Amino acid sequence: MSRALSAAVAIAAVLAALVIVANTALTGIQLGELKLGPILGPAADPNFVPAGAPLGQIGSDPDDPSDPWSAAAPPGGVIVQTAAPNATGSIRIPIPKNIPTGPRRVAIQAGHWKSDEAPDELRRLIPETGAEWEGVTEVEINLDIAQRLSVILNSKGIAVDVLPVTIPVGYVADAFVALHADSDGVGENSGFKMAHGARRGPYEDALLNDIKDSYGAATGLEYDPTHITNQMRGYYPFSWSRFQHAVAAHTPAVILEMGYVSNDDDRALMLDRADLVAGSIADGIMKFLSDTPRSAIFGQDLVVPAFPSRPSRPSPTP
Known about the structure:
This protein has a five-stranded mixed β-sheet. It has a four-stranded antiparallel β-sheet with strand order 3-6-7-15, with no helix packed on it. A two-stranded antiparallel ribbon has the order 1-2. A hairpin with a 2-residue loop joins strand 1 (29-31) and strand 2 (34-36). The protein has helices at residues 2-26, 138-155, 204-219, 230-233, 264-272, 274-291, 294-297, and strands at residues 29-31, 34-36, 48-49, 54-61, 64-72, 78-81, 90-93, 105-110, 132-133, 136-137, 159-163, 175-182, 193-195, 253-260, 302-305. Helix 2 (138-155) packs across helix 6 (274-291) and helix 3 runs antiparallel to helix 6. It is 30% helix and 22% strand. The chain folds into three domains: 2-36; 47-94, no CATH class; 105-297, 3-Layer(aba) Sandwich (Aminopeptidase), CATH 3.40.630.40. It is α+β, with helices and mostly antiparallel strands. It contains seven helices and 15 strands.
């Protein structure tokens, strides 16, 4: 009887130890001020690349071939997945650990604002101050509408970050919208245009289309797809693999060129009817948030194509 009891106690002790180990592996365990684990998860994968570690060379600067572009893993790291011979392969981006809680959170970037404070990795942005026409600067338009938009969204219960050129490292939110205004240098072009990056989450088309529809309907401006550039598609906040000061890949992110500061009618719209402009953007954002729950945006890891050998150059300027 005593032997059976001793054996049962021993088995119970082993099982308890296994439970502790499993719990530590999955969630970690707190012992006083010492945190153990977790030891499983993305970091345990042999193909895991930690934040900031190199993913390989993806090209070079056409203006300076001696300056290679190197890709680096974003905050949270990535898993480089194996591929068949001669295939491109893919990269798995884990769900961010700092998903927002509480009210929905939206970032509005005022393009070119505080460009002189850009970090070293974005030093090329420092002299970029945006378009100017007849004494009106793009940055003053961008900031004014960003602030008006923030007030409108706040009134609807949305938490808003009005961001300058420098994006917080691996920024995470329910949506990110960069505001800009263009110039053609001659005053002929009119209209607005939008773009988002590649190799990101699946909800960016929805964010773009919701804002596009509300903005066009409210302002009466024509959509200008002809002048959407690779610089817009490769806008630096979208390029999580080239810049640490970029928007997390899970965060739906778009750039909106609200009109041409060089066009008299477009400029008057952005200056004299700024509340209308801001309200139309807010309507598009609110529709997107209503249709797209946070649980969907951050519901699973992203799997995106691995880098081609020579991709088109993401530009820090729209």
